[in-house]
Amino acid sequence: MKLDYLQALKRVDEARGAWILHGQEPLLEQNIIDAFRKSWIEHQIERERYDINSVSDWKNVFNALNSLSLFSQNLAIEVHGNIKPDAHALKLLKNYIQHNEHNLLVVIMPKQDSSSLKSAFFQTVEANGVIVALTANYAQDRQRILALEADKLGIQLTQDAWQWLEAHHEHNLLAAKNSLMRVADTFPQQSNIQIEHLQECLQDQSRY
Question: What is the pLDDT of residue 207?
């Protein structure tokens, strides 16, 4: 199954099996990892992290997934890297997916090209788990994502303010989020943000 970032956020609490998150948007990656970690703490799910530096590191991941701690009923494994499993590790992945439905494997990878997305690893997870592309290619997607960030800060932007913010940051979501935080701090009594508010606190910043 393929999900976008906003769809994936809604399914964090029910996530099981195997998930791959891939993309080049640091804001989206950090937000969804934070959402997973918060959910694991709330549901008392044990978490382990592995960094994949060679193909052989995958063996440790699947050993952990298939050997549960005495102190927990569920385990979440967070894997970071850009090395896909080899044929042997793929067999371990398929075995894990078939027999260990209570645990969760979350693999965080950088943006993948089209050939990588057609690899056996991605095809296996797409058929049996979840693939999340951490991208926001369209202005309306970026605005929906940033509107959530604005809601957290207790502010709303007018439509022309959104357009100004988009143009100012040239699609950089992380920079745009930082600007939302800045404008919320600069105008703490103002919940409805206009273009003038953004210009006042951001244009000086752009000179440096």
Answer: 40
